[in-house]
Amino acid sequence: MFNGMNYKPHCTVHKKVHITLSPGMHRQKAVILIQFDYSQEFISRVKAFPEAQWSQTRKSWYIPMENFDLHKFFESFKGMAYIDYSAVTKRKKTRRAKSEHHNKKEDTKNIVLPAGYLEKLKQKRYSENTIKTYCHYFKDFQKAFKDKKIENIGINDINRYIHDLVKVKNISLSQQNQRINAIKFYYEKVLGKEKVYYNIDRPRMEKKLPDVLSKEEVGAMLKATNNSKHQSIIALIYSCGLRRSELINLRLEDVDSKRMLIKIRGAKGKKDRYVQLANSTLHLLRAYYQKEKPGKWLFEGYDGKQYSATSIFNVVKNTAKKAGIKKRVYPHILRHSFATHHLEQGTDLRYIQDWLGHASSKTTEVYTHVSKTDFSRFKNPLDDIIGDDE
To answer: What is the pLDDT of residues 266-317, one digit of tens each?
Structure first.
């Protein structure tokens, strides 16, 4: 990369130099950064662009994005350099995808849901996220059959619609299920038709095993930050096996330090439950409370409202990065780790099921496949062949 601090004597270019173009921000303006190994000839060519400037802080030349002409730039360095502009085109594709998504939302914005659909969802006390998802997907369904009366659409049409989404748009298995449920809700719950009418082939769900951190990695994350709020968030999710939404909804009164319990209100399935409060977590929470003095919610933003889901995600992700953990880390991996570590230390699966708030033991049993307990009972035959000494 060109470095303004290390100027070298003038030299002639004997081979093609790599130039890397990438989008960036400089003084709150979108720019294209131009980076290359030192060459006085290249500097002169870049300076030929009236808008080009050198940034001492970025150690790079740059041109305001609104003035950047990729074709003109190519012509200026034709035959002299390899120009890597993949980051620029990637940005354009991302912006185009966002634009297309926005346009799609606008396409369905004026579609009116059938009478009773939204009301029934609220009456059944579906969560806000589920209501939003169902309404969005059902509007898509209405748009696809805009020339037909929605209440008269048959099973073959519905199956064909879902099949097309899978083949053409390559929707995920999870989305396929959600779309089917959104459609079924209208015909079964709103119109009151018999369930037998909706004999839709359900997708075979992928059997993925959850990601898990080691105890050492969880400890490294707690040591990687001195921020008491961030430490408390990580410790609570892990030590209580919480979902992100459950952490967000915790109030100050939900922490019972006398009984060493935390009450989780209205969790998945509209069920309350209690989870154990670890002594170490309580110490972190007290230090956090003394410093931050939250008013209503245990974790609050600057405006006193609930801490956002995005903020929690970033806290976990960035702390893991500071701790030097290479694997992908996200809030739910701490919940997976809580269950797996309990199983490995001999905790009965029924207790873990209750603490996690699982309605079925089958959901909890997935952790038996990631626990190292069974593996540790057996010796790998390769160790007999080549030895297991370090």
So the answer is: 877 778 999 999 999 999 999 999 999 999 999 998 778 899 899 999 999 9
> Could you give the 3-state DSSP secondary structure of residue 197?
helix
Among candidates 247, 238, 254, 252, which has minimal Cα distance to 292? 252
Phi-psi category of residue 92: left, alpha or beta, with phi > 0 → left and psi -120 to 50 → alpha: alpha
* 145 in Cβ contact with 157 (< 8 Å): yes
Q: What is this structure's pTM?
A: 0.57
Q: How far apart, in whole angstroms, are the C-alpha atoms of residue 82 and residue 16?
A: 6
Length of the chain: 390
Alpha-carbon span 97 to 103, nearest angstrom = 10
Q: Which two tokens stand for residue 288?
A: 């956090």
- The topology under which CATH files domain 215-374 is hpI Integrase; Chain A (1.10.443)
Q: How far apart are CA 179 and CA 164, in angstroms?
A: 13
Of 1.10.8.80, 1.10.150.130, 1.20.210.10, 1.10.10.410, the CATH number of 111-198 is: 1.10.150.130
Both tokens of residue 20?
A: 């890397």
Which strand ranges, in their side-by-side order, compose the sheet holding 81-84? 53-55, 60-64, 29-36, 17-26, 81-84
Residues catalogued as catalytic: 243, 268, 332, 335, 358, 367
Helix (H, G, I), strand (E, B) or coil at 203: coil
d(CA 63, CA 51): 6
Q: Transcribe 356-383 into DSSP letters.
A: HT-SSHHHHGGGGGT-SHHHHTS--HHH
Residue ranges of domains in the chain: 17-92, 111-198, 215-374
Q: For the stretch 236-275, what's the b/e string if a residue is b when 16 or more beta carbons lie within 10 angstroms of its beta carbon?
A: bbbbbbbbbbbbbbbeeebbeeeeeebebeebeeeeeeeb
Tens-digit pLDDT profile for residues 202-217? 556 566 788 899 999 9
| Token pair in block for residue 147 | 């020339």
Classify 89 as helix, strand or coil: helix
Residue-wise over 92-118: b if at least 16 C-beta within 10 A, else e? eeeeeeeeeeeeeeeebeeeebeeebe
Query: 17-92: what CATH class?
Result: alpha beta
